[in-house]
Amino acid sequence: MLTWHATSAVSRKATNVTLPVDVYQRAKELGINFSRACEQALRQAITAEEGRRWALENTEFIKNINDWVEKNGLPLAEYRMF
Fold it and tell me: Where would I find the H helices in the chain?
């Protein structure tokens, strides 16, 4: 899985974000960095969506593996320490 890290060497793209007034005011009061918070939230959303899509695209494979394990048991189960 790709790990996302923000660095100063990464080029940036300015964008506008529309927020509810209460969210904007509270974040401003708390000194939250809007760009950093939005970036972190978007990275989490991207990761979640990529995972959802992978699972959807691999549904048949996952089902086949689960069926095989149900029928044959876990490979190397005899060596498990838990």
Answer: 21-30, 34-57, 59-72
Residues with Cβ within 8 Å of residue 37, at least 6 apart in sequence:
27
Which of the four pLDDT bands, split at 50, 70 and 90, describes residue 6? low
pTM: 0.69
- 13-23 exposure pattern, b = at least 16 Cβ within 10 A, e = fewer: eeeeeeeeeee
How confident is the model over 57-69, as a mean pLDDT? 97
Please list, in sequence order, all residues whose beta carbon lies within 8 angstroms of the beta carbon of residue 53, skipping any fewer than 6 positions away.
none
Which one-letter amino acid corresponds to residue 3?
T
Three-state DSSP class for 78?
helix
